[in-house]
Amino acid sequence: MDKLLIDGGHSLKGTVKISGAKNAALPILTATLLASGRSTIHNVPNRLADIKTMRKLLADLGAVVEGDESINVDCSNINNWKVPYELVKTMRGSVLVLGPLVARMKRARVSLPGGCAIGARPINLHLEGLKRLGVDIRLSQGYVEAEAKKLAGATYRFGISTVTGTENLMMAASLAEGNTALENAAKEPEVVALADFLNQMGARIVGAGSEVISIEGVKELCPAECRIIPDRIETGTYMVAASITKSEMTIADCNVAHLEQVATMLKEAGVKIGKAKDGIKVVGPKSLRNVDVGTAPYPGFPTDMQAQFMALMSLAQGTSIITENIFESRFMHVAELTRMGADIKIEGNTAIVKGVNRLSAAPVMATDLRASACLVLAALAAEGTTEISRVYHLDRGYERIENKLSQLGAHIRRVPA
User: Fold this and answer.
1) Residue finishing a domain among 192, 210, 227
2) Around 392, how many Cα atoms within 13 Å sit in the side-chain half-sphere?
3) Looking at the 3D structure of the chain, how many domains does it have?
4) Which domain holds residue 290?
5) At 328, which CATH number?
6) 249 CB-near residues (< 8 Å, 6+ apart)
7) Same-domain status, 32 and 161
8) Which residue from 38, 37, 106 is spatially nearest to 70, judged by alpha carbons?
9) What are residue 322's DSSP bridge partners?
């Protein structure tokens, strides 16, 4: 198990290239299960732990998976419909194989997913939707067991907007008989990217990116080719890195249109964001202004940027109010930030952040993926050398982060714990 050592107080300069989005790559990789033959997926963030796990999972189901940033997935000989706990205990995205397996194999046995410890993220909405499509569901010894003689289109309204739930049902409904309408569907860019790929495979999906997605089921799908969209959360994290270190940075291969709320909040804090040849240029201000934010489903402020923005506001003038409206336990990074000198108090789902003049290095521990990024950002701005342990969380969502930051001038190194 590794840890990161970061000597803070150094400005960043140069260009960082954004990797493909993990949260787009995972559902698209599972979608290859829907068709016999070889699909090709480009710009895959292949060094991420979750992508490596998904490759193993697909191989365990009988797929042939080859390549690096461009991955070929041949699903001609899928011969297994069981996904064991050992393969999914660290990755919540594993639940995404449920819809494709039921659609193609008419049965699935998938372990309940693991992943970051950021509160309850039940998959009941996935299961209720699959039942509406005609799938028999039962839970047994930590596994979801699903079986269907055939899938039939239906109308299903999500009680709460859920990205993976929308993706799971969209994949299953693509091979169902008749029409399906998913209401209160998630609008995230990753959902749109999956719909685009499914349509490349021959699916008939309209409305992705809106509250209602309509799917006309087809008898079969064909292999297809696509390129993974840029990771909007990695983009936002580097935007905050430039801001918190008062630096000037070019962020290439990104799509800032997927981050309008983050860009708006950063501009309100005094950050300058402009166009660059290959992306955007971000210039951090000498003095940060306090800004209040509340997380919300897309196109609102993403919960996956809440921790990073809190690190930034810990050094802003005045008091900021940060409200977490998506997950009930996503403030575990607060205790670690306060160890570094931040002044933060929690009241229910709200964090009251009083800006301080400086942060100081301290030994800290990552508790989840985005909390890890938050601590890296705080360490970049802190005085002294910060030691961040349990960085395996970081490796689930940020590709070569120490290399990318080092190329920008950060003093960061990975060492054995």
Assistant:
1) 227
2) 10
3) 2
4) 2-18+230-416
5) 3.65.10.10
6) 12, 13, 14, 15, 16, 238, 241, 242, 281, 282, 283, 408
7) yes
8) 38
9) 293, 351
* Rounded Cα distance, 227 and 95, in Å: 22
* Domain match, 284 and 330 both: yes
Nearest partner of 109 among 122, 98, 125, judged by Cα: 98
Q: Which of 75, 116, 226, 254 is catalytic?
A: 116
Q: Are 178 and 218 contained in the same domain?
A: yes
Q: CB under 8 Å to 330, separation ≥6 — which residues? A: 118, 119, 303, 306, 307, 324, 368, 370
Q: Do 374 and 260 share a domain, yes or no?
A: yes
Least confident range of 79-93, 203-217, 363-377? 79-93
Claim to verify: residue 206 and residue 237 sit in the same structural domain = no
Look up residue 322 and give its amino acid. I
Are the beta carbons of 51 and 43 closer than 8 angstroms? no
Parallel, antiparallel, or unpaired for β 2-7 and 411-416?
A: antiparallel
pLDDT at 114: 55
Last residue of a domain, one of 227, 262, 295: 227
Q: Are residues 408 and 261 in the same domain?
A: yes
363-388 pLDDT, tens digit each: 999 988 889 999 999 999 999 999 99
Q: Which of 74-78, 224-228, 326-330, 398-402 has the lowest mean pLDDT?
A: 326-330
Report the relative pairing of strands 107-111 and 143-147 from DSSP bridges. Answer: antiparallel
Say whether both 182 and 240 belong to one domain. Answer: no
What is the bridge-based pairing of β-strands 350-354 and 107-111? Answer: unpaired
Residue 273 is given by DSSP the state E
Distance (Å) of CA 52 to CA 80, 89, 190, 284: 19, 13, 19, 35
pTM of this structure: 0.95
222 is catalytic: no
**Does 295 share its domain with 386?**
yes
User: Roughly how many angstroms between the first and final C-alpha of the chain, as a whole number?
Assistant: 6
Mean local confidence (pLDDT), 323-348: 93
14: phi then psi, degrees, rounded to nearest 5: 125, -160
